[in-house]
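User: What would this chain look like folded?
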Amino acid sequence: MLAGTMLAFYYQPTAAEAYRSVTSIVRDVSFGNLLNQVHRWSALLFLVILATRVLRFFFAGLYGRGRELIWMVAVVSFAAAVLGGLGSGAGAVLGGLVLGIAETLSAGYISSAYKDVIAFVLMLAVLFFMPRGLLGGRITERV
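Assistant: Here's the prediction, encoded as structure tokens.
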């Protein structure tokens, strides 16, 4: 968190200035490249630890015995974030809204037993057809 806070002093979050600000941080700020790499690797380590915990939670069978609600909230939240686009807060909100409407409609028209399957089906469909999510932007690489 400290590296992210230090980077926030120099980062410009606009579409026109984001690339230039990151380049400036890496090249011009003292220890900017180190801060950028520490921030990047810390975020990746956080995701690896999170995935490891989720797998341990699943394979140890800890999602049962009164913890089903926590498990389903985590899975549906992740599906909503993927559905909307992992880098977009508004996309995650939109993904949650779409997911809630789809689950409600499927419970009403198909069967309530398949309500939880809809999250996985929508997440897989979005990952297959729109890998960046509903509001995930196109990444352009500058050379």
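The chain has two domains: 1-62, 63-143. If you want, I can go into more detail on any region.
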